[in-house]
Amino acid sequence: MRASGNSIHNMGLKSKPTKNICIVQFFENGYFAYIRPQKIEIMEYRRLGKSGLKVSALSLGSWVTFGKQVEMKDAKILLKTAYDAGINFFDNAEGYEAGESEKIMGDVIKSLGLARDTFAVSSKVFWGGKHKMQMGLSAKHVRDACDLAMKRLKVDYLDLYFCHRPDIDTPIEETVRAMHNLVVQGKVIYWGTSEWSAQQITEAHAVARANGLTPPVMEQPQYNLLHRDKVEAEFLPLYDNYGMGTTIWSPLASGILTGKYNDGIPSDSRLNLPDYQWLKDLWSGEDGKQKLEKVRKLTELSKELDIALTHLSIAWCLRNPHVSTVILGASRLSQLEDNLKALDVMKQLTPEVLRKIDAIVDNRPAAPERFGQ
């Protein structure tokens, strides 16, 4: 979305200068305009499910970047650019580079002096180390991991705290109660899940309701043009029944939906990083090859529309009203600045364009059966 300088002035709204000599425009409908010379970016804000927390439609995550490809200096540039563009949610986890990702993010936030009441930060619990007590969702590890995450992130509470995966060895009631206790203690504001099934999330809500405990507010699933079933089909009852929010990850399918793998794997790709052979294998199999062929066709469509495939892919995720925020990952400033432009093309995804996209990916989940009703 773009607006001319004249249209801004004609709105008759007050502008607020910031320290780095830019203009911040606030609109009555909740939009936020970050204005640079010759450029305007509009950030949209959405409620996190039925909660009152309003998160930026685009957020910044640190998986495979902070502590892996990105160190303190560049991380500071990335996070400040994101914050200045209106991003107010930063995603992390104890398992990202064995906690190093959280340390870097915490150091950056402190060095930038960001006001604590202007951003939300998350952590996730499951993979805390090699010791048996450092794994899973036991009440002990849920608490220990929270304390350690706050220390690394240099905050005195976590805005969002996720169960990074379901733990079949720990009763869901134990995990729900552990999360509730952290909320009561003021260490966590909202808790949620990541890559849980609808059945597991439903069980968590049932346990919370039966025992007067705090239920989960959000889920963090993978969602992109090549991975749709859970968000668009399995979770449908959860949006209506519980007002569940989603903080979706991998909108570009680990970079596949940028089109840069159409002719092979670049040498500087994350698919060539140590310890990520599993990700490379995922796309080198038969199923991966079929998906790459779809990406090539999407690339052709994006050229016809004069929209970068990256922008089309992120904007496609944003058009889903059940998506609270799309988590971006970037190892370079140019990547982040480019991804932010996805907000500009959302209006170009007309019903006709969406039909063409569906025809290419051919994976739209079937609507719930009404049996003739």
Low-confidence segments, given as residue ranges, are: 1-23, 35-40
Major sheet attributes: 8 strands, parallel, barrel
Shape: globular
CATH architecture of the largest domain: Alpha-Beta Barrel
Which CATH C-level class of the largest domain is it? Alpha Beta
Strand order of the largest sheet: 7-8-9-10-11-12-13-14
> Could you state the CATH homologous superfamily of the largest domain?
NADP-dependent oxidoreductase domain
Tally the beta strands: 14
Q: How many whole angstroms does the radius of gyration measure?
A: 21 Å
Task: Report the structural category.
Answer: alpha/beta
Query: What is the distance, rounded to the nearest whole angstrom, between the alpha carbons of the first and last residues?
Result: 40 Å
Number of helices: 13
**Number of discrete domains:** 2
Overall residue-averaged pLDDT value = 88
| Percent helix | 25-40%
State the order of secondary-structure elements, H for helix, E for strand.
HEEEEEEEHEHEHEHEHEHHEHHHEHH
CATH topology of the largest domain: TIM Barrel
Instruction: Report the sheet-strand fraction.
Output: 15-25%
Describe the structure.
39% of the residues lie in helices and 16% in strands. It is of the alpha/beta class. The protein folds into 2 domains: 1-43; 47-361, TIM Barrel. The longest helix has 20 residues, at 286-305. The chain is globular, with a radius of gyration of 21 Å.
